[in-house]
Amino acid sequence: MADAAADPREAAFQAAIDAERSVEPRDWMPERYRATLIRQIAQHAHSEIIGMQPEGNWITRAPSLRRKAILLAKVQDEAGHGLYLYSAAETLGVSRSELVEMLQSGRQKYSSIFNYPTLTWADVGTIGWLVDGAAITNQLALTKTSYGPYARAMVRICREESFHQRQGFELLSQLSHGTPAQRAMAQDSVDRWWWPSLMMFGPPDDSSPNSAQSMKWKIKRVSNDELRQRFVDMTVPQARALGLGLPDPQLRWNENSEHYEFGPINWDEFAQVLKGDGPCNAERIRVRREADAGGAWVREAARAWAVKHKPRSAEDAA
Amino acid sequence: MSTAVVAASDRYQYALYLGDDCLILSHRLAELAAHAPEFEEDVALSNLALDLLGQARTLLAYAGLVEAAGRDEDDLAYGRDDREFRNLLLVEQPNWDFAHTIVRQLFFASYQLPLYQLLADSQDPTLAGVAAKGAKEASYHRDHARLWTLRLGDGTEESHSRMETAVGALWPFTGELFQADPITQRLVAAGIAADPAALELVWRDQIDQTFAEATLERPVELGVRQGGRSGLHSEHLGHILSEMQHLHRSHPLATW
Amino acid sequence: MNDRSSWPLWEVFLRSRRGLSHQHVGSLHAPDWEMAVQNARDLYTRRGEGVSIWVVESAAIHASDPDDRGPLFDPPADKVYRHPTFYKVPEDLKL
């Protein structure tokens, strides 16, 4: 690999990053910076799109009309977030078509949390509370990411996502203070989703090979471990407010560090799910592929009509 | 202006006609979340579903109020069996493919828009209020369906063929849109309800214009299937309700 | 270029109720301008955020940046995004 100092643009680029200047679509950037961003933004977008499935699973069964409306709006927001992020990725010169193809072929990933099944209504609340809570922790940090379009998408997403987390908390609160069956449903849900939520932040930074470069380029602003700790510290008191336990006997407040200590994470499970052997991996991709294949005739028809009726578009002229 | 006394039970039933139409159609649209032909369309279809759900909630809450038996929107949505539902047969038809979804939308929104425009002058302030807000939404829904009808009708051979199939499948349910049963007739006389028969010409006009541009044909006479307004539904409603009501009914004492 | 849908890319500009000018808010795919406006309304004004919507095909926008930012700025390319729209992700890229 060429010595960075040999290309004066690399040094100037790093200096701009160090000075907290945002990188914009028309700026020169190292190819690896661009590739890293494309992958990260795309995988973030794919996560939003795939995330529609576990939650969408409960729309038709929502137990009240108000909850149905809230959940519909949430899933709609996720589609919208996916679109904001694909939009940011496209400023880097990749087409959405290509990105979706890479999702569907498995070349690009999505957050492995969505490979877990939503078995009960309580899971809808837990996803809002824990999964969106974890996502917000990560996304707040990303509002300061070095690439302008990505940072701006994050600001927009964070604003919309705080509503989701509150709704999830409220849903669970209703359950945890409800009938015995509802309380049991809520506790069972949290027992299943707690550890996968902690895994959302990724492996410890010392086993994350590309963290260092991502931090240097300010794509990543805060380490995995620190984000995970922030999340735990924020969430434990919330669990107490809900009257729900967390499935970790080692969870305790440390007076000295002023953080919550927690037990060991099963990174083997994480690796397995990441590899494709989680409970819902195949299902999530199958649904995505079917929607894509099933929609092909629609997309083609729309394009055919446009060519017939509006032939003077810039694309057709090109 | 009529000074006829309006029976609460008539008003209750009418609110169910309108509310159940919105509830069931909203449900059908909600089934498509994460399955739309393009992500932008996921957002669009959810918008339609949310608008209709909002209308349904207001109308069902009002029905409960009028009934004065202590039932709220959820009691009515989740506690009634299929024989007590009052929606049009059209709205319970399945999303066999996107063409069916769009044709169903076009037929319904082209009916709901003039309905709400008339109903905005209702002597009943609640219904007038729902209609005034709903008309704006129905207008948007109709536009969305119209745009897609053109593109699918006059797009590719495959899309045209699928649209023809969808029109054939859904046309039988179009007659029911304009039927005025005795309850509706009484309410029309009292200045409460919009006369469905008065909607037919506007509806036909809209459909004909859109179909002409979309190179689609339609039968001359309206369809003859009916029964929804008196609770006799197609087999589809039972399945919709099983899914929709199961969790709520499994926990009779719970609030959510 | 992968032709999965071949819906062109559109840039969306919104002028909010109290705004003085249209601001760029992002992009979306649509088969033609009518659907682009409708999609933009659904995507970017769901919370009543905007009143006036402009959509422009990305390919129709020509750009030139008057600020010379030294070694980070190449001679003006006329595309609104620097890169051509067919970047191929390397197979062997490990991240």
CATH-defined topology of chain B: Ferritin
Structural class by SSE content of chain B: mainly alpha
- How many separate domains of chain B? 1
Judged by helices, strands and strand pairing, the structural class of chain A is mainly alpha
**Which of globular, elongated, flat, extended, rod-shaped describes the shape of chain B?**
globular
Average per-residue pLDDT of chain A, rounded, comes to 92
Strand content of chain B: under 5%
**Share of helix among residues of chain B?**
55-70%
What would you call the shape of chain A?
Answer: globular
Distance between the termini of chain A: 37 Å
The average pLDDT score of chain B comes to 96
CATH class of chain B: Mainly Alpha
Task: Indicate the radius of gyration of chain B in whole angstroms.
Answer: 18 Å
Can you give a write-up of this model?
Chain A is mostly helical and 318 residues long. Chain A has 12 helices and 2 strands. In chain A, strands 1-2 form a two-stranded antiparallel ribbon. In chain A, a hairpin with a 4-residue loop joins β1 and β2. In chain A, 47% of the residues are buried. The model of chain A has no long low-confidence stretch (mean pLDDT 92). Chain B starts with 7 loop residues before the first helix and ends in a 6-residue tail after the last helix. In chain B, α1 packs across α7. A 3-stranded antiparallel β-sheet of chain C has the order 2-1-3, covered by helices on one side. The longest helix of chain C is centred in the middle third of the chain and has 12 residues. Chain C is an alpha+beta fold and 95 residues long.
